[in-house]
């Protein structure tokens, strides 16, 4: 166990805090936390509570700082995931990242599989609608050697229908799998791209699965064999093929009948409808989001387990939420001024459940408020008194003076250094100044942001 976590879980105040969490006290308010202190407390929670955690913070930079610090304090770093906001398509010609949709769906898939301990996201991400969970995972496919493949509905699961099933999961057919989200069929062999580097090759004997093997996409060479595998959605914009005509009809009714559009706008809508009917619909989802998905969802609805929700600086989150709405409304004005159709995904941000100040009530889970200053309320309040102390090479004398004061006050002092050489140099510096009872940790992975951390 990380040394600092070991010290934390022996703290009497922290023990009482964990007891409240286990007894489902709600909400719990913690104050006196520095940025690194927040990750320290959360990592301590992970070690003591068998529950996944979702951390909501106020911007992307803060989210990534939290993740960096958590990776220092926790052992299973792969189970800490960042769920980023999506790039909402404002105009048809806007460039979109290819990596971001895969990053988002990977996190959603791991949430669905209960393979994640900590999710870190931002209030802006929560304000963006996503398709509901039941739709996204309706068509997942199960492969097992010696059996026919299975789906949730177990309807028409023969080899001839597999191509249709993969397309329903968002995979694109190609002659050769060259990356994520693609599949190819050659005789009785099906290749599916799982990432940019790795794919899975499933060989059939009739309708029965003969072998499953992972392969390197670049070299096409087998890396390892498997007995079974489940194929999850390739992206979050999943629709059912039989719904395409219904979606197009809704778009036509809304924009060509109900709305008063000019001829150019009407022609754009007609062109969009033709593209959707041809299967090229993903770039149009943001524009006609409500016609694609009548029932909208958000990340909280994907958290089916007994998640703890950590709110990082509620005042900053609320300020960011208000700024997002202001910026979004200004963007809507630009569309109106340019006589453009406003993408519904953008309209939804200013009209969804996060618009009001009482948005916190939609969470419906156990909440922990984490604050730098006074806690959000005085109910179930804990104060840990962290403070961040930064020293530089030119201030060695100040560091030594402060350390002597901490030792005099009977504080336990731990210094984190990057490697064994730094450890020896630090030890020599302390001994030269008559300090010989300080713990020095070397080979620290991914050192936390900022200098020394003090808490009681």
Q: What descriptors fit this protein?
A:
456 residues, 6-stranded mixed beta sheet, 7-stranded parallel beta sheet, single chain, disordered C terminus, alpha/beta
Task: Explain what this protein looks like in three dimensions.
This protein is of the alpha/beta class. It contains 16 helices and 22 strands. It has helices spanning 3-9, 12-22, 35-48, 60-73, 99-112, 123-126, 133-136, 162-168, 244-258, 263-277, 289-292, 299-302, 314-337, 344-349, 396-408, 420-432; strands spanning 28-31, 53-57, 80-82, 118-122, 130-131, 141-144, 150-151, 172-173, 182-186, 189-193, 198-205, 208-216, 222-226, 228-231, 296-297, 308-312, 366-370, 381-383, 387-389, 414-416, 439-441, 452-454. The chain has a 7-stranded parallel sheet, sandwiched between helices. The chain has a 6-stranded mixed sheet with strand order 8-9-10-11-12-13, with helices on one face. Helix 1 (3-9) crosses helix 3, helix 3 packs across helix 4 (60-73) and helix 9 packs antiparallel against helix 10 (263-277). The longest helix is centred in the C-terminal third of the chain and has 24 residues, at 314-337. 30% of the residues are buried.
């Amino acid at each position: 166990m990380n040394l600092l976590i070991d010290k934390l879980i022996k703290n009497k105040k922290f023990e009482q805090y964990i007891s409240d969490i286990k007894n489902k006290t709600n909400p719990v308010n913690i104050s006196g936390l520095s940025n690194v202190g927040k990750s320290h407390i959360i990592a301590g929670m992970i070690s003591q509570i068998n529950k996944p955690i979702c951390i909501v913070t106020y911007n992307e930079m803060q989210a990534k700082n939290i993740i960096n610090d958590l990776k220092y304090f926790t052992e299973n770093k792969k189970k800490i995931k960042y769920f980023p906001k999506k790039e909402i398509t404002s105009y048809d010609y806007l460039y979109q990242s290819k990596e971001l949709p895969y990053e988002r769906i990977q996190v959603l898939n791991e949430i669905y599989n209960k393979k994640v301990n900590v999710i870190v996201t931002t209030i802006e991400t929560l304000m963006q609608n996503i398709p509901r969970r039941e739709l996204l995972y309706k068509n997942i496919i199960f492969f097992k050697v010696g059996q026919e493949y299975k789906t949730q509905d177990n309807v028409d699961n023969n080899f001839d229908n597999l191509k249709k099933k993969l397309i329903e999961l968002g995979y694109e057919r190609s002659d050769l799998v060259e990356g994520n989200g693609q599949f190819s069929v050659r005789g009785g062999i099906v290749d599916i791209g799982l990432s940019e580097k790795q794919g899975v090759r499933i060989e059939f004997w009739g309708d029965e699965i003969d072998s499953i093997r992972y392969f390197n996409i670049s070299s096409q060479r087998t890396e390892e064999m498997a007995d079974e595998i489940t194929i999850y959605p390739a992206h979050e914009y999943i629709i059912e093929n039989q719904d395409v005509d219904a979606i197009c009809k809704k778009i036509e009714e809304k924009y060509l009948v109900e709305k008063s559009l000019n001829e150019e706008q009407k022609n754009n809508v007609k062109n969009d409808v033709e593209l959707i009917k041809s299967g090229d619909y993903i770039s149009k989802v943001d524009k006609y989001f409500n016609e694609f998905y009548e029932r909208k969802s958000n990340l909280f609805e994907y958290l089916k387990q007994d998640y703890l929700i950590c709110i990082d600086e509620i005042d900053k989150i609320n300020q960011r939420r208000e700024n997002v709405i202001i910026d979004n409304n200004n963007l809507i004005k630009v569309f109106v001024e340019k006589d453009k159709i406003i993408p519904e995904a953008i309209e939804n941000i200013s009209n969804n459940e996060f618009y009001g100040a009482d948005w916190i009530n939609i969470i419906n889970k156990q909440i922990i408020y984490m604050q730098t200053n006074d806690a959000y309320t005085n109910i179930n309040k804990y104060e840990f008194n962290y403070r961040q102390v930064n020293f530089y090479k030119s201030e060695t004398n100040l560091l030594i003076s402060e350390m002597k004061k901490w030792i005099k006050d009977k504080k336990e002092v731990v210094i984190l250094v990057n490697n064994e050489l730094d450890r020896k140099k630090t030890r020599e510096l302390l001994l030269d100044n008559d300090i010989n009872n300080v713990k020095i940790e070397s080979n620290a992975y991914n050192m936390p942001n900022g200098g020394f951390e003090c808490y009681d």
